[in-house]
């Protein structure tokens, strides 16, 4: 817990706080509702539901995971993670798959931070929270695809939904390779939580 913030997993109980944060920002990135990286399940087809309903159904099915950063009762950020089966729709997928020698059981796909809390380290809190939740779920290798920022070039936070290479390096991830114009492949092994 930093600055009085608490990390909680995305569950049916925390979904209303997650939804309030998404709705405060018009559904996030043009109404994505953090569903772009998700695929269909046996009982939930994306095109048959609006964004909030699709996400809520995935949460209820136990196939949508995120570490939520709470400030009191309000969610102020999240880091989405899950298995490749839960989150198949990554950017530059063909290029990633072509160079993937050892697929990881976990991937981190996106972040979102409330506009009132940006540039304050909250995304890093969400990343650390996701790694802690992965440890509690048995740990294992985690891969992610953060952006590599051009030196001296200012980038809008709206383009940083995958986080930055620098943030992931500070969290202990190792750089493997570039994919696309500015994405990277980074990896860490998370030990299972004790007990």
TrEMBL record:
- Name the domain of life: Bacteria
Tell me one GO molecular function of this protein: acyltransferase activity, transferring groups other than amino-acyl groups
| Listed SUPFAM superfamilies | Acyl-CoA N-acyltransferases (Nat)
Tell me yes or no: is Nucleus among this UniProt entry's keywords. Answer: no
Domain called N-acetyltransferase: residue spans: 5-191
* Record-given protein name: GNAT family N-acetyltransferase
Could you list this entry's UniProt keywords, alphabetically sorted: Transferase
């Amino acid at each position: 817990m930093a600055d009085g913030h608490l990390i909680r997993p995305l569950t049916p109980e925390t979904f209303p706080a997650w939804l309030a944060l998404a709705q405060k920002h018009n559904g996030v990135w043009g109404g994505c509702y953090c569903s772009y990286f998700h695929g269909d399940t046996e009982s939930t087809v994306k095109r048959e539901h609006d964004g909030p309903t699709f996400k809520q159904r995935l949460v209820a099915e136990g196939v949508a995971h995120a570490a939520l950063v709470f400030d009191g009762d309000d969610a102020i950020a999240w880091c989405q993670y899950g298995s490749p089966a839960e989150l198949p729709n990554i950017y530059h997928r063909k290029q990633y798959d072509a160079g993937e020698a050892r697929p990881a059981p976990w991937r981190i796909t996106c972040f979102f931070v409330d506009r009132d809390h940006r540039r304050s380290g909250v995304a890093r809190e969400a990343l650390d929270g996701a790694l802690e939740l992965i440890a509690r779920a048995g740990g294992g290798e985690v891969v992610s695809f953060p952006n590599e920022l051009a030196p001296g070039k200012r980038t809008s936070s709206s383009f940083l939904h995958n986080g930055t290479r620098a943030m992931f390096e500070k969290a202990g991830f190792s750089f493997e390779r570039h994919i696309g114009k500015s994405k990277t492949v980074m990896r860490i092994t998370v030990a299972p939580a004790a007990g």
